[in-house]
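Deliverable D2.4 — example input (C-alpha cells):
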C-alpha cells in the first residue's frame, strides 16, 4: 500500500502490527471512519442552518 506521507505510512504500519490487520484494511477502515464523520458534520451543519432560518423567521414574526 502506497501512502504519500512517510509519517502516515509509519503510523499505518504500527497500527497494522498492533491490531494484527493488513495495512490495506487499516487504511480502508480509517478512511471509512473519517468519511462517516464528515457526513455527520455535514448533517449537523445543515440542521443548524435550518434552525438559524427558523429562528430568524420567528424573530421577524414577533418583531425581535
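Example output (designed residues):
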Amino acid at each position: 500500500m502506497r501512502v504519500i506521507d512517510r509519517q502516515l505510512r509509519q503510523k499505518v504500519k504500527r497500527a497494522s502490527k498492533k491490531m494484527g490487520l493488513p495495512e490495506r484494511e487499516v487504511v480502508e477502515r480509517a478512511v471509512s471512519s473519517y468519511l462517516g464523520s464528515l457526513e455527520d458534520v455535514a448533517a449537523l451543519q445543515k440542521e443548524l442552518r435550518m434552525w438559524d432560518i427558523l429562528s430568524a423567521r420567528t424573530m421577524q414574526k414577533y418583531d425581535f
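The first helix runs from residue 6 to 19.
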